[in-house]
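Entry type: protein chain
Record version: 2
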Amino acid sequence: MIGTIDSTTETEMIKDSKTTKILLLAILLIVALIYPIQCSRDKQDEAIRNEQTSKVPDMLHDSKANKIFMLVIVLGVALIYPMQCSRSKQDGASRSKQTFAFTSNDSLEISTVANEISIEIDPNAKEASASIGGTENVNLRVEKTGNRVTVRVIPVRSFHFFSFFSNSSRLVITLPQDTLDNLTISTTSGSIDIMKDLTASTINIKTISSRIDTLNLKATDAILLSTISGSISSYSIISDNKVSIGSTSGNLDLNEIEGSNVTLHSISSGIDASVKLREGGTLKASSTSGNIDLNLSGASNLSVSASSTSGNIEIQGSDQSGHSFSDKTGDGSTSVSAKTISGNIELMY
């Protein structure tokens, strides 16, 4: 059964980089004014060279066509950019907003292609809401079936000239409380920001070519964060069971991780994390060419192994000879493994 959803349109002032736009426009206009003068100087210099030589000018010596072409491009951008800025401000001012009932027992699934995503918490709100600007380029759909809410942003196919320059609007989800059942977020190229405390059974966040930034995430079952070419940063990630965080080419900057089964993976970037591992748990950190820096201060009963094919290994601030290291504290019931091929490894415990 599809839940009832109220749709309204609100006007909001969206911050933009006005100063940057004005500066860029000024630069373009200056280039447009200076370039013809420079072209004239080049022609005079060329005339002098022709008088001094008997060579016939060719296209390599006279790039007049290229100069005209470049001037047309600069003037075109100088004319188009202000119009596009105006379109962007209009999109930001007019936002589509849909409200829906949402309780701590509900699950939330968010899916976009190129839109940035933010999750906000407003304890004074009676209902949850989803809002987005630039409604002529996207279709916002919110559906509730039982305890499951899906929010989707579907791009509208547009082939007008300005669509080439348009920026995707940010999708803002506002929840009336900071607890929910399951949270799933997926996007292709939009960044994901959760700058509020959030608690769920399972948190699963995926993006392909952008970053993930979170404040404090807590889950009873699992927290899964992954991106291909973006970075992942978080202040606190706590799970009673599983934590899995991975990036192909972005850094992992994790202030605090707590869990029983923790996996950190990166291919070409570094891993920097402070980990509190539950007794009897496992930590696996791996990278191909990035450095691994792990702080497990205060942990006991560890079984530690570290290996690097061509990098250095530093344990407790002391460099180790060779490319592998192993140690055991207490009964060794808690396993810690760090592996990299060409990166360095630093462990504190």
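Comment: Helices lie at 18-52, 64-93.
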